[in-house]
Amino acid sequence: MGKKVKKDEKAAPDDVFDALQVESRQAATAVLMLDSPEEDVLSKACESIYKFAEKCDDNKKNLLDLGAVDSLLKLIQHEDRIVRRNACSAFSVLTAHPEVRKVLRKEESAIPSIINLLAPEEETLVHEFAALALSSLATEFSTTVSIWECGGVEPLVRCLGSPDPDVQKNAIEALAKLLLDFQTRSALREYDGLRPILELLKSEFAVIQQLALLALDRAAQDAENRSLIRELEGVSRLIDFVAHPEWNDLHVQAVMVLSSLLEDTESLEVLKETGGLKKLVNLITDKAAMDEEAKAKGGGAEKKGGSRAAKRSAKGDGKKKDEESHDNPFGESIVPTLPDVKMCTAKAIARSAKNAENRKILHEQETEKMLIHLLSHENADVIAAAAQALAIMCENLLSRDAIREWEGFPPLIKLLHHDQCCVKEAVTLTLANLTTGNNINASEVVSLNGLEPLISLLGDGHDSTVANVACVLTNLAQDETNRAEAQAKGVVTALIPPLKTSSTTVQAKAALGLAAYVCDTDSRTALREAGGLEPLVALLTSCDDEVRRNSAWAVSVCAVDEPTAAEICRLGGMATLQEIQLSTTRQNAFAAVALEKLLDNNLSAKYALTGRLSAANGISNGFYDAGQLRPGSKFLPLEEYGKQELNEKLAVLLVNALPNPSTLQQQSDLELKTDASKTSISGKSSRTGRESKTKTKAQREREEKQKEEELQAQLQKEMESEDKPYSPPPDPSLLKYIEEVVAKIQPIPSLRQQVQVLAQYVSEKLGGAIERGQVSNFSWELPMSQVKFELKSNVVPIGKIKAGIHVHRALLFKVLADKIALPCTLVRGEYYRAWNEVLLPTEPETPSDPVFPPKWYVVDLVHNPGGLLLADSIEATNYQKL
Fold this sequence. Notes:
This protein is mainly alpha-helical. Among the domains are: 21-107, Alpha Horseshoe (Leucine-rich Repeat Variant), CATH 1.25.10.10; 136-229, Leucine-rich Repeat Variant; 498-601, Leucine-rich Repeat Variant; 638-654 and 731-880, no CATH class; 661-678 and 702-727, no CATH class.
């Protein structure tokens, strides 16, 4: 038996707690452990909370309710490196929940504590999770401002240079969100953050490249940042990025950044000088890819390089590096540019072309060729973007000619038949800009049979397309040949439906188009018969200034002939124009012109409203003087005055020198019936034999006269029947006056003598001269009433009046003067006053006397018929006033 050896066992100190192995299955326990004084316990508790919170959002909310956020916020400032790292990872994961962020916004120490973790002495993993926390917190704009105020931009910029891709990813994501605030944009420039962001475009990880492009896009909204990006050769780098076919899934974002940069003329100059613009154009038209493919086939060189897809699938730990050779900038295979990239490039060009200097540079680089090439693309969005860019380029006059020379019109005309509304809208806008002020381009559209599709598009339901088409058609109307061809294809009636739309833009463009095409009688007749005047007149009451102006202009063009002017007046156009001119906010020069044109073709209304007819306003048959209208009174047509019952109001003076056709027909019928009656009487006399001889000649004439009167009364009764339309009474006396004046006064060689003789003639026909002060005693009311009673009407032909004063004589003088081309005015005064003014040359007494300019004279028709009173003289004033 061996010797026993005594074991040397040392008892544990009494004041030391024995190690305790604890297994917990509750998150609450782990949260409680966060208050432990032991670093090892804290570290393990933070690690378990990180794993638990990473599983789902419900776990994050549960940990928040358990108070884990406050404890972790304290632990991220712990002295122990491992505790601080694990607490930071758990805390950053929790910040992904909105409720956690809401709580942290109230903690003033939260953001500074996180920013402190980005210090250079901290380890990489702490940087990664601290940047992640700031990225999550930057989701709310209010927190973004707090991060900037606490100096968080500088450490984030420093993290962009980290060798760890996860740190780069979280830092650039946080910066991209912070760059939504303009203050961060200037801070980024101050801390030289644009340089490392541009370097991140070379990253092996797509997510980092994407976030870098997003940050660049937002930073480029600042003009000074754009300038710095140019200095850092950012434009060229972006072009090279787009030229890399492996990165085609990010080309759209790269082009968006270029779009912001190309707003500056300096960037476009850089692009031009470095050849980048040509390179971009070639890329978008797939020319570069095709050239490279041809080169590869010719050289037979073996391309090396890994798969980009493998890189895209790499996890965010950033440890896997893909060894790829970039000897070929176009990658392993040639890939045509994606449609979205082409669309964004066209939009970028359109955005840049809004600047006049940029348009000039783009034109010098023949950018229009690329855009015309894109019009043949199969993608509708690409076509629409290219057409919109062309439309903006057309603001440069040289581009309009260049597009025509480079055969840009055929594809544009062809696209008018496209199914997509966006394409038709963009194409019609381009055509509108191309044809503005360019008759050659307008003729090109017509020669390529573009009229029919354009007119058919007026019925398109898209307002913008219809408005653009109306602009194109208006431009085409500037050439007489194009206008005639469009009119033959029914453009006038096709422009009527757009007038009835609810879009004010369409209404304004359609009204302007109508004004361009209704410049001849046939077009105005077609518009009137198609019912186009009613919606046009209705637009005069529009609340939109442009619609009112354009519709007033169209009305002024339509109102140059009497039938159309009469129809416009019937539809209330004259009253509406008067209201517009009385308004202080709606009146405009177009409405004034329209009203004047309307009145020039409705002299009865003009005289009633303005009280003056110029020498150019020749009175014709159908003119009537109903007296001066009061403001707000409605001008009535002659038919309404003629159908009114006989009253004591002033007579409506009518000019109607033509015999009434219905009266002529009635007289013819009367003659036929009279002849038949005479024949019947003669036959009866022959049958009775000797009995008829017993009647005297006077008795036979009396019987025949009685029968004629009966027939006349019957015809008069039929004429006055309500079923027949109103027919103004004829004025054979006026017709006789005109014949006499033309025969006797018109041959007089002297204009002054013509005026004097005509004045004496008018005075003689209306009662002769009246002594001064005796006008009130001159009896003219009773004869006028007798004429009204005789005609059973308030409408009195001027020739029926045998006694008249100023108002009657001035009207008759104007009517007769117009018939012999004697220019004179007709002016209405107050208290039955009216007068005529004539412009007469001065006649020197001797041939050696100087000849003075002609002067205006008032013609005396009442007191000294034939006397000429110098206008504005005391004698003329006394003649014009009571």
